[in-house]
Write a structure and sequence with these properties.
By secondary structure, this protein is an alpha+beta fold. It has four helices and twelve strands, in the order βαβββαβββαβββββα. The strands form four sheets. A six-stranded mixed β-sheet has the order 5-6-7-8-9-10, with helices on both faces. The chain has a two-stranded parallel ribbon with strand order 1-2. Strands 3-4 form a two-stranded antiparallel sheet. Helix 2 runs antiparallel to helix 4. The protein is globular.
């Protein structure tokens, strides 16, 4: 009679686990203590507090607009799904995105599938600016994300990066402007309304 090796139990990770060295497979199989954000960056577990109301409220508002577009707009079939606080999977990293949008698939997205649009709401601090405007931009666009939206309540603007051939195109949308994208025909994003949601919590 042969005796097999016992199955490995998944790692149980919490805020005290920040800085642990993990493989992507270990991260994917782990169990996480609720109430925190978990990312795997360069093989290191990064644990952050949950987003502030200044970020959660406009994010929920954007989600509401997208759901409404999906339900009532005649061209809404372009939108397949949208999720908040979703992990974006790259070959080596696990980034926690504020919101992802799947468009143009014509079906439900698979777990870990690359979204068409990734949205980040900028948090306070220079480190967060570098992360959102540079690190995440490069990772998302290299992964195949078609558009990366950075909603910045401090600079009062929306910055959009779009893949274009071997490079990318940058578009800055001002506070009084409305953003539209070919990926979601007929969908409008009035930036000032999102920024006002953030301002409620000053």
């Amino acid at each position: 009679m042969s005796i097999g090796l016992p199955a490995l139990q998944p790692l149980c990770l919490g805020p005290d686990s920040s800085g642990a060295l993990l493989t992507p497979d270990e991260f994917d199989a782990a169990e996480f203590e609720a109430g925190w954000r978990y990312e795997l960056l360069h093989g290191v577990l990064v644990v952050s507090p949950a987003a502030l109301r200044k970020e959660r409220d406009p994010n929920e508002e954007l989600g509401h607009w997208l759901r409404n577009y999906q339900e009532v707009h005649p061209r809404s079939a372009a939108l397949d799904a949208t999720f908040y606080e979703e992990t974006v999977v790259t070959p080596t990293e696990r980034r926690r995105a504020d919101r992802v949008i799947y468009a143009g698939l014509g079906r439900s997205p698979r777990e870990g599938e690359t979204p068409a649009i990734v949205v980040e709401f900028v948090s306070a601090g220079k480190r967060n600016l570098i992360r959102d405007y540079e690190e995440k931009r490069d990772e998302y666009l290299a992964l195949g994300v078609a558009e990366y939206w950075i909603i910045d309540r401090f600079a009062r603007c929306l910055t959009v990066y779009r893949r274009a051939g071997a490079g990318n195109v940058k578009l800055v949308v001002g506070e009084g402007d409305v953003y539209t994208t070919r990926l979601l025909p007929g969908f409008e994003l009035p930036l000032d309304r999102l920024l006002r949601r953030a301002d409620l919590w000053d």
